[in-house]
Amino acid sequence: MQGFLTVDKPQWMTSHDVVQVVRRTLGLRKVGHAGTLDPMATGVLVVGVGRATRLIEYVVGRPKMYTTTVRLGQTTNTYDAEGVITQTRPVTATDDQIEAALIHFRGEIDQIPPMYSAIKKDGQPLYKLARKGEKIDIPPRRITISELTFLGRDGDDIQLRVGCSTGTYIRSLGHDIGNLLGCGGHLVALRRTAIGEFTEDTAVLPDTITPDSLLRPDIAVTHLPRIDLDESEESQIRVGKFIAQRPDDVPASVVACYTAAGDFLGILTPRDDMWKPHKLFLS
User: Fold this and answer.
1) For position 117, what pLDDT does the model report?
2) Same domain for 70 and 187?
3) 152 with 202, same domain?
4) 129 and 108 within one domain
5) What is the pLDDT of residue 223?
6) Of 81, 108, 218, 238, which one is least surrounded by beta carbons within 10 A?
7) Could you write out the three-class secondary structure of the chain?
8) Same domain, yes or no, for 169 and 116?
């Protein structure tokens, strides 16, 4: 049994909890997820099963989509509703001012992750240092916000749709938007709607998972260049031999290869002018 699950993670369930449910339901130990969701968040959690866990690394870096609600006027120490309110300020921003503020966060920007995060400093997660009251200078990270759309508001709560690169903290985004508006802000709702090709449209709740919920393993690599092997090349790859690159092959650091019958065989990487077997799914 191998493949991927698009799980619709319920609120307050941890990503590890979801993995444990999958293990029990499918009777497998080899299960892993691609990209943690905070317990408060809901939505798409991609889970690899069996040998497909070897392809999780190709999912982790895919672009992500979210919808989120930011409550203006209140700042918390965790940048979300799980934290302690540290400051309250009046909200005077109009819809036009909110739209104008969002412009500053689109495209490539530098973002400082929240102190309450799993990023490690000298081997210690930042959230553990934060709980001890320690202050750490966190270097900014270069991220890309491909979409930031103002969907509407309900009083001081504003709804946003966010498309972003891996490594983006939506909590930091909400916090920074609030600061730019002069009133502060924190997340009160967050839903991940997509990671690459995995979307909420195909997501299943943890308690409805069955073997039929599994998606094929190569859905994780459909964004990679594809090479279709002839029977001779397939035979060589299957026994671990290198094959010559062809003039029309797309130059790439990694490619997905398929058999002459159209079945997914695995991942190849370049070595000089050859293709080297990297991760094969042999039957």
Assistant:
1) 64
2) yes
3) no
4) yes
5) 95
6) 108
7) CCEEEEEEECCCCCHHHHHHHHHHHHCCCCEEECCCCCCCCEEEEEEEEHHHHHHCHHHHCCCEEEEEEEEECEEECCCECCCCEEEECCCCCCHHHHHHHHHHHCEEEEECCCCCCCCEECCEEHHHHHHCCCCCCCCCEEEEEEEEEEEEEECCEEEEEEEECCCCCHHHHHHHHHHHCCCCEEEEEEEEEEECCEEHHHCECHHHCCHHHCECHHHHHCCCCEEECCHHHHHHHHCCCCEECCCCCCCCCCEEEECCCCCEEEEEEEECCEEEEEEECCC
8) yes
- What pLDDT score was predicted for residue 127? 60
Cα 180–chain centre separation: 26
Number of domains observed in the structure of the chain? 3
Residues 71 and 160 in one domain: yes
Given the structure tokens 């998606």, which residue do they identify?
215
Residue with more model confidence, 238 or 115 = 238
pLDDT of residue 116: 65
Active site residues: 38
Out of 179, 204, 220, a domain closes at 220
For residues 146 and 250, state if they share a domain. Answer: no
Predicted TM-score of the model (pTM) = 0.90
CATH number at residue 248: 2.30.130.60
Structural domain range at position 228: 224-280
Mean pLDDT, residues 93-114 taken together:
95
